[in-house]
Each structure stands twice: as structure tokens, then as C-alpha cells.
Amino acid sequence: MNLTSKKVLLIDLEKEASEVKSYADLQKYVGGVGLGLKLMHLYKDLDPLVLSVGPLNGFFPFASKTSVVLNDSGVIEDLYIGGTLSARIKFTGIDSIVICGKAKDKSVLEIIDTEVTFKPADTEMGSLGLPGRRSIVAKDDTKFFVDKYFTTPEYFLETKLEEKNIIGLAITGTETFKPVPLDKYQELYHKILARKSDITVLENVHPSCFNCPMGCDRSRVGELGGNVLIHSLVACQYAEKIYSDVGVVFSCLNILGYDYTHEDIENLPKLIEETLKNLN
Q: What Pfam family is a match for this entry (predicted)?
């Protein structure tokens, strides 16, 4: 992982082109909604759809959502979707996917690590990516679903994808990362996993988001807005008791090799507030 800058996959639908950019000055936005809003500001003239993950996605329990930031008729919306998508994006080695412009024809995007392929609308989604390492985002009737189950509240995502002529995405991440020291990481992982009683939803038998054993009945419809620290980490809002604990957050960040300070975390809400003011 690149721990000194944010790595962004920029996709231009009109030109059917993509490139990877690194932004050292965006590291202070942590990830998720903080990073998504700043990228929305940087690319606002290109009507971006921004998918972002945080530093804990793929590594710790209950940090299992993907942040979606978009402009809905002049209103900036932040949504959160569950499933395996956050882990697949994390293991592409990138922090955000920024989809700009509009495709000439209805299209499917296949993303394998940082390589983007533009596919025709009749492409069979199940033929894309690598089974076991991919997330499929596809439409079923009126809603887009991740892994055929997880979706977002309202219809903001559906409207934006339709505006862009995108009818599906397949995202595969093949990179691997090993936290060092591994034994301390595993110890912390299991300490957090054992805090199931702090999760504010009941355990059930529904499909779970990545790195979550709860199987709750709330994961299917995702989240809308909320605590900016939780959604910059991109943790589940029902794990707020865990991930609003600054000590836990710093332990997780440090074990993964990040050098964020208490001041960085304390300044995050103000950074996001200023970014929103600039956007509006």
C-alpha cells in the first residue's frame, strides 16, 4: 500500500480512457466520504461519480462499506453500500475510483486492479473479473445491487449511472498486503471482532458485508449520510461505538503503518465542512 498519498483511478467515459493519479496532499482526508468530497470538488466540472474506501477496509471487522459521492441536481449526496465491494477496491491498490463524463453508448466497465476495459451493454456480467476476487454491480429491475443483494438508499446511484450510460461494473482486486507485525495485527483484529455486543443491530442470517459476521437485516439497503469519522474510515454506522473510539482507530491505523496523528483526526470534520462550503 502507498501510505504517503492517495491513489485515484480516473475514468473518462467519453474518451474511453483511464489513468492512475497519486495525490500526496489528499492523505489528510483519510478516505471514504472525506476523500470523496474533496475529489468531487477537484473534478466537479466533469460530473464525477466517486467510489472511495478507507484505510481500514479489507483489514478490520465492521469496516465494510464503500463510500459513494455524487451530485444529484446540485445537491451533493453521500451514500454507503455494503457487500464485498470495499475489499475488492482496496485490493486493487487504489483509494478511489472517479468516473467522469458520459459514455457514448450503454456500457459495462471491467476493472482489474488499475486496468479498465470498456465493454458493450450485452456483455454477460458473470464472465467478467476473477471469481472469488470480484464484485459485480448490476441492475435488477429498478435498483443496482452489489453481489446481487446489497444496494443503496433512495435512487441517487441509479440515476447517476443511467445518466452516464453505465449499466454494470465488475471490480477485481488481486493485490495482497500483509500487516507487520502480523501477530499484533491478528490480536487487534480479534479484539475488535469480539465486540459484537457493541454493534447496534441484531445478529441474523442474512448475507453479511465483508469482514462482518452479523448477517443483520439492515445491511441490504446501505446507509445515507452520518458520522464523518465513521464514514471516512468507511466503517458501518452500526459499529459507531467501536470506530468513534479514537484509541481504537489509532491502534488500527498504526498497525497498518499509517502515521496519522490525533490532530489529523480532530481536524477531519473541519476539513470536510470547508470542502462542502467550497462545493456549495
A: AFOR_N
Task: Return the pLDDT at 180.
Answer: 87
The rounded Cα 196 to chain-centroid distance in angstroms is: 22
Q: Which three cell numbers stand for residue 158?
A: 441509479
pTM of the model: 0.96
Q: Which residue's entry shows cell 451493454?
A: 121
| CATH fold of 1-280 | Aldehyde Ferredoxin Oxidoreductase;  A, domain 1 (3.60.9)
Residue 209 DSSP label: P
Nearest CA to 75 out of 267, 224, 242 is that of 224
Nearest one of 45, 7, 14, 9 to 165, comparing CA atoms: 14
Strand partners of residue 120:
107
Tell me the DSSP string of 89-124. Answer: HHTTT-SEEEEES--SS-EEEEEETTEEEEEETT--
The closest alpha carbon to 21, from 97, 91, 90, 87, belongs to: 97
- Largest Cα span, the chain: 50
User: 45: which residues sit within 8 A by CB, 6+ positions away?
Assistant: none
Distance spanning both ends of the chain, measured CA to CA: 33
In contact, 54 and 62? CB cutoff 8 Å: no
Distances (CA, A) of 113 to 1, 53, 99, 171: 13, 14, 15, 8
Q: Single out the residue of 181, 205, 210 nearest to residue 56, CA to CA.
A: 210
133: number of Cβ within 10 Å: 17
Q: CA gyration radius for the chain?
A: 17
pLDDT digits (tens, 9 = 90+) for 185-209: 999 999 999 999 999 999 999 999 9
> Phi/psi class of residue 144: alpha, beta or left (left: φ > 0; alpha: ψ in -120 to 50)?
beta
Mean local confidence (pLDDT), 69-85: 96
